[in-house]
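QA checklist item 7 of 12: single-chain prediction sanity check.
[x] sequence parsed
[x] length recorded as 279
[x] structure emitted
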Amino acid sequence: MTSTILLERPSITVSDFRCSAVPGEAPYAELHRRHSISYVRKGAFGYRCRGRSHELVVGSMLIGVPDTEFVCTHDHVCGDECLSFFLAPELVEAIGDRAQAWRVGAAPPLSELMVLGELAQAAADGRNDIGLDEAGHLIAARLVEVIADRPPQKANVTARDRRRAVETALWIDAHSSRPIELEDMAREAGVSPFHFLRQFSAVLGVTPHQYLVRSRLRHAARLLSEDDRAVTDVAYDVGFNDLSNFVRTFHRAAGVSPSKFRRTPRDMRKIFQERLDLN
């Protein structure tokens, strides 16, 4: 595991994590020392905390709380990378310390969070003009809003189910710009569409099609954050075959239109400030 601190402020520290563990490597216990949110930008890994197991894939978020022991596992793939935000108690309190939101352990790939994860990654890469600390504040505020009322998902799944779901999620993300149907995904997983849908949803907390759409949104958010190609081109490049559907879907996820997401990071700051003022 290599860790690089990208930003260090009194209220927030941002680090880049790159894990080189290989499948089968013995896991070990670690301890969360601060509230944290880690955006999975590459790969996949398992996360065990407080008696619950999670499989995190690209677009997922690992959520840590202070003084909590956890274990990361690498049973399926290797080479995962995360952009991690460590929050001071004062910032958590300002955003809204809703215990149920912080103690879920992990968030599945949710479009409302993935687009901000890509905005933050673009900021980390120096490809937009929003501050990396501002991006972290936005993600934390949005996470509390989105997760607070989501009950933990319980499911009975085998180790084989987990491997199949994770490997197929990586395949979906890598091919998301192509037309992909449930039958294609199930064929890649090697099971019937009926069983694939149930297993994938139970392991990752979203349906295969939801993950496909959110992968497309994640790639779109990255392109919108990085370059000036036309919104229409972005829509078709990431796999949407209808511009109006892309604009509508992106707006529902990000709270702003694709053009505004690209054009006005200051507006994102204003949205965050308004949310803070409500607490």
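[x] summary fact logged: The radius of gyration is 18 Å.
[ ] second reviewer sign-off
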